[in-house]
Amino acid sequence: MNFKLLVLLGIFTMLNGFSQEVPRTFTLEEAIAFALENNYNAINADRDLIDAQKQKWETIADGLPQVNAAVSYQNQLKQPVSLLPGELAGGDPGTFIPIVFGQPQTANISATLSQQIFDGSYIVGVQAAKTFISYSANNKEKTVLEVKKAVVEAYGNVLLAEESVAIFKKNIATLEKNLFETRKIFENGLGDEESVEQLQITLSSVENQLKNATRLQEITLQMLNLTLGIAIDTNTILSENLDDLTLKQTDLSILESDFNINNNVDYKLALNLNEQRFFELKLQKSRALPTLNAFINYGSTAFSDQFNFLSADSQWFDSSVLGFDLSIPIFSSLKRSASTQRAKIALEKAKTQLTEAEEQIRLQLKQSKSNYILAIEQYATNKENLALAERIENKNQIKYAEGIATSFELRQAQTQLYDAQNKHLQSMVDVINTKTALETVLNNN
User: Which backbone phi and psi does 180 adopt, to 5 degrees?
Assistant: First the structure.
């Protein structure tokens, strides 16, 4: 019994260990790769592409042979009565004899093979199906770029929140030390109460900022998990820090990259729209063409007073029909003409939208390059300003401790430092995000 108990306890402990959540650790590139496989939008984009391929075959299949079978059974509970002239049976003229024709129960089995011989709309539909697949592929590519951009932004926001929490805690530790020393000086009658109050105001403000940053740290991590396509409460760990990531994303050589507008996914989608409008115009024109279909039918029918159609003695009568259906559009009160004109207008609008999209993309490229350069410049400036603000705050700490600087001057220096810290952190995130935005426009991968 003791041995069995130990085995059961060991199994329980092992299962319990497996049930504990293992933290997921990601670099930025690993997070992007994971999201492209598991992000909800990315998964649905894959499904949309598969759906487009199935839709293409659905369109093609309409022009291939179709075979349909039918089985019917009828039981005339009250058969219809017909009247025959009485003189046919030797009766008086003007009289009628009621008579019932046929047997009350009927069974029929038939099969029909139909084939589309010519339909202009079918030809256009097959051609347009290829464009639809191209659109779905381009839409998937756009989704990939959007997911990558969302992961980069979410990853950076988590790092920003983590750095903010660490800085606020460091600032609070310094403020608490200042406040403790200042209060002791005041209690010993060597300082004024205003100095204590000034430090209390600063400390309260920074403590509130820390609480907010702590909440944001949790929220940004949950947003990252959502973007990755995992449960928002998953214990995710980021293996990169904001400084190293910013340095990796600082690459001015990207500004010299060749730009091919045909690689831009928005331009590809605008081209898809033009192709779609072109085929819609062809479709409207094809409606003026005749359509020709052929079919062959083979069936067998049996009649009986009772349901014995499954017996070997039942007699079945075969029949077969071969036919063609030719439909020729002649006059539609100018409806087809109006539809064709509308399709032409839609195509011209799509051409104008393509020209506009091309100009917008070129402008977007210039703006993205400008934003990226500005982000790098601001990062360098804010880094220098942070170093200056730290030196100024440190000098004021020394002056305040020696009684040379007032608490108001110290608070000014601390506020300036905190502002420089926030701007420095935000500038690092801006470098990362603007680099991703530029890569999205270029789409050279």
Answer: -60, -45
Sign of torsion, CA 375 377 383 389? negative
Alpha helices in 242-334 (DSSP H): 242-249, 265-286
Percent of the chain with pLDDT over 70: 94
CA distance linking residue 428 with residue 432, whole number of Å: 7
**Nearest Cα to 178, choosing from 153, 203, 145?**
203
Q: Which pLDDT score, from 0 to 100, does residue 360 have? A: 97
- Model's pTM, two decimal places? 0.81
Instruction: Tell me if 183 sits within 8 A of 196, measured CB to CB.
Output: yes
Model confidence pLDDT, tens digit, residues 190-207: 767 888 888 888 899 999
Tell me the torsion sign for CA atoms 342, 347, 348, 350. Answer: positive
Work out whether strand 24-26 and strand 236-238 pair parallel, antiparallel, or are unpaired: parallel
Work out the burial of residue 267: count CB atoms within 10 Å of its CB; fewer than 13 is exposed, 13-18 middle, 19 or more buried. buried
The candidate with the shortest Cα–Cα distance to 371, out of 440, 444, 442, 438, is 438
Structure tokens belonging to residue 384 = 């220098």
**Mean pLDDT for the chain?**
89
Spell 152-162 as b/e; 16+ CB within 10 A means b.
bbbbbbbbbbb
Distance CA 246, CA 23 (A): 25
Q: Which of 346, 360, 345, 358 is nearest to 276 (CA)?
A: 346
Q: What is the pLDDT of residues 52-83, one digit of tens each?
A: 999 889 888 888 999 999 999 999 888 888 88
Q: At what angle do helices 407-442 and 193-228 cross, to 10 degrees?
A: 20
CA distance 408 to 406: 5
The predicted-structure confidence for 312-324, as pLDDT tens digits, reads as follows 788 899 999 999 9
75 beta partners: 105
